[in-house]
Amino acid sequence: MNDPILPAMKDAADALNLELLQLTAIQPDDFEQAFATAAARAVGALVLLDDPVFTAHPQMLAQLAIRQQLPSSGFPDYVPAGGLLAYGVSFPEMWRRVASYIDKIVKGTKPADLPIELPTRFRTIVNLRTAKAIGVDVPTSLLLRADEVIE
Question: How far is CA 43 from CA 37, 46, 88, 145, in A?
Fold first, then answer.
């Protein structure tokens, strides 16, 4: 699912002269070890991909990040659960688009005749409580651009 994202992250890290450490967690039992490894390697930040094993456990992941004092970003549901930052697609908007496609198919349109659409609406969410808990100062420029700020 995240195969195209990892090479892009590697390219971005290389361009910024940063080391990208990929940690794998196949199931929730793996989370604790992955976060401990990240803390032991003194990573500067953690990015959680939109993987079903992560999206099903946002609160557990957020608590581990806070306990390890790791600035982290993830999927939109991660921030209300205690994560620091999210930037991602607007799932309600995507669901509306899917519903319109289903409607067209039910009314007789062939799926192959429908255009492929990419998301156009993205959300930025910042959790200031988490920022304070882990000692991160969030730049005002980011707060001004955020769609939602949790205080």
Answer: 9, 7, 22, 26
